[in-house]
Amino acid sequence: MKTLFALLAVLAICAYPLQAKELPVAEPEAVGVSSERLNRVDTLMQDYIDDQAIAGAVISVTRQGKLFYHKAFGYADVENGIPMKTDTIFRIASMTKAITSVAVMMLQEEGKLRILDPVGKYLPEYMETTVVEVNEDGSHDIVPAKRPITIRDLLSHSSGVGRGTPGVTQTQWQKAGFTAGSTNRYTKPIREFVREMAKLPMNAHPGERWTYGFSTDILGALIEVVSGKPLDVFFKERIFDPLDMKDTHFFLPVEKSDRFAKLYAAKVGGGIVLAGSDTSDRDQGVFIDGPRVCFSGGGGLVSTARDYTRFLEMVINEGTLFGERLLSRKSIELMAADHLGDIEIPGRSGQSFGLAFAIVEDVGARGWIGSEGELTWGGAYHTIYWIDPQEDMTITYMTQLRPARGLNDRERLRTMIYQAIID
Predict the structure, then answer these.
(1) Residue 160: left (phi > 0), alpha (psi -120 to 50), or beta?
(2) By CB neighbour count within 10 A (0-12 exposed, 13-18 middle, 19+ buried), where does 200 fall?
(3) Which of 7, 60, 61, 401 could form a disulfide with 69 if both were Cys (CB 3.0 to 4.6 A apart)?
């Protein structure tokens, strides 16, 4: 009998971590949200699907560390009638950036780098770079950068690394193979990718302008060099496994391909069409049948709403989840601080940028419902997340649409979620 009790005790101890790996679920009212008012989210999403504005979506919302809304709508594959499910896998594009930034901060905490270091200390080709300066008469000059790019410049997108200056050097970047879209389709490792990029003139001098481009891909190569591990291995060992992000990958395992959402494009005049050779997007299948060589820290991951919500919960919980600490509270605070100063982000009134996310500094200037201190970013395939420390809330919205052509679903979804708060 004693042996039986001992065995049962061991089984209970072993089973506990498995049970504890899922976020606790709560009724909306238990976390200060109205179920009745939350139904407006369901109506909103169904309207978009009925209007053929999107194919489908998955939404996850937490408050006070509890999952109170996790639903799937519409279809993952319209043509074959495959419904969207809560475990459907999505291309998350630039939502990858926050994960890469966390990895960099982990290496800083281990003393392996400083974010104020020049990137060239680890990637020598970046110690001296060039910049294009456009003159008033339309001519341009290629000049040495005023100073080396730092790791912090890359984290805050103030490095000046773009995709070439339109009308001046953009064609040069395109001819060299550096265009918008997922780096995953390239046949060279990320280290070689960014080494070749360093030869090209950047869009701006470091620290002078907010420039959205390949900064976080350079960080991916930096992580490989500093850690001594391929980016996919580092992410899996240090982030995905500890957080049990079991469906987050750079390239989708073949056995999971039936859970992968199709990518759609908004048509001019309304409706959607399956993205393919007749659209501007070339990434319909690259995450399944791509070369599987180049790991893009700037936009290469696929994931689920469940997995990404766990990552957001780690951030809002000051670096820890389920007893696994990835970062200290102070590193999270540094990531959530304004690192731009007087530099403005084009088209983002009331917002600045930290070391991974846009930061809402003035709700009125932005004009959308939300909170000051909110952290947010989205992906090219129309996914988005936001973290609201004031409301102790995280939101993950997954859909697959590119281009979206001005669709206002993300703004309206935000309103429907916040209007349901009743505490």
Answers:
(1) left
(2) buried
(3) 61
Residues 326 and 103: their CA atoms lie apart, in Å, by 9
Write out the two tokens for 314.
Answer: 């780690």
Tens of pLDDT along 149-194? 999 999 999 999 999 999 899 999 999 988 876 577 888 999 999 9
**CA proximity to 94, closest of 157, 141, 153, 165:** 157
Residues above pLDDT 90, as percent of the chain? 87
Residue 68 is inside which H or E element, if any?
Answer: strand 66-77
Provide DSSP, 223-273.
HHHHHSS-HHHHHIIIIIHHHT-TT-BSS--GGGGGGBPPPEEEPTTS-EE
pLDDT level of residue 279 (50, 70, 90 thresholds): very low
Q: CA-CA distance, 319 to 102, in Å (whole number)?
A: 9
Residue 254: CB atoms within 10 A of its CB come to 9
DSSP per residue, 339-389:
--TTPPPTT-TTEEE-SSSEEES-HHHH-SS--TT-EEEE-TTS-EEEEET
CA end-to-end span of the chain: 51
Q: Model-level pTM?
A: 0.93
d(CA 406, CA 404) in angstroms, rounded, equals: 6
Closest to 164 measured CA to CA, from 219, 212, 94: 212
Query: Omega before 17 cis (within 30°)?
Result: no
Q: Is 293 helix (H, G, I), strand (E, B) or coil?
A: coil
Instruction: Give the number of C-alpha atoms closer than 13 A to the C-alpha of residue 71, restricted to the C-beta side.
Output: 13
Give the bridge partners for 72, in sequence order.
58
Which residue type occupies 18? L
Nearest of 279, 263, 225 to residue 383 by alpha carbon: 263
Side chain identity at residue 413, one-letter code: L
The per-residue pLDDT for 262 is 96
Query: DSSP letters of 376-420?
Result: EEE-TTS-EEEEETTTTEEEEEE--BSS-TT--HHHHHHHHHHTT
pLDDT tens sequence across 1-47: 444 444 444 444 444 344 448 999 999 999 999 999 999 999 999 99
Integer Cα distance of 280 and 318 in angstroms? 39
